[in-house]
Structure formats: structure tokens, C-alpha cells
Design goal:
It contains four helices and no strands. With 75 residues, the protein is an all-alpha fold. Keywords: DNA-directed RNA polymerase, Transcription.
């Protein structure tokens, strides 16, 4: 499956943030996959984890937020 940048940017305007969010989700999915009790529920088992994360992001299944740093929180 090809994922277009336009689809990704509909959920978040910054390409940089999109990349970071998807990378963190892919890392999380990869760690889950390493668990011996893991069962692959992907539509296509051979699908790469990064593609799974992109699909999840487009579908709104990736929950993310932003932490305030101490400087901006004090203002």
C-alpha cells in the first residue's frame, strides 16, 4: 500500500511532527511484536511496521500529545 503525504498532513500540518509521531508508534509496535505472546492482527502479515503505523495515523488510531517544557509552563 502506498501512503501519500497529503493523507498524513490532513491529521497534522507539520511533516516533521508526522514523521516523529509515526516513528514512535512504529517503535512501539516493534516492541510489542518482540513479545513472545504477540499475535499478528495485521491485514497482511508481511506488511512493514512503518506502513502499519502510517495507516494507524491516518485512521486516527495513534494517540499523541505534546508536553510543555518548564519555561513555557511558567509563563
Amino acid at each position: 500500500m502506498k501512503v501519500s503525504i497529503e493523507e498524513l498532513l490532513k491529521r497534522e500540518k507539520s511533516k516533521y511532527k508526522v514523521c516523529c509521531i509515526i516513528a514512535l508508534d512504529a517503535e512501539r509496535l516493534n516492541n510489542i511484536k518482540k513479545d513472545p505472546t504477540y499475535i499478528n492482527e495485521s491485514e497482511t502479515p508481511e506488511e512493514k511496521i512503518i506502513i502499519q503505523s502510517m495507516k494507524r495515523f491516518i485512521e486516527g488510531k495513534v494517540i499523541y500529545g505534546y508536553m510543555e517544557d518548564e519555561e513555557s509552563a511558567k509563563k
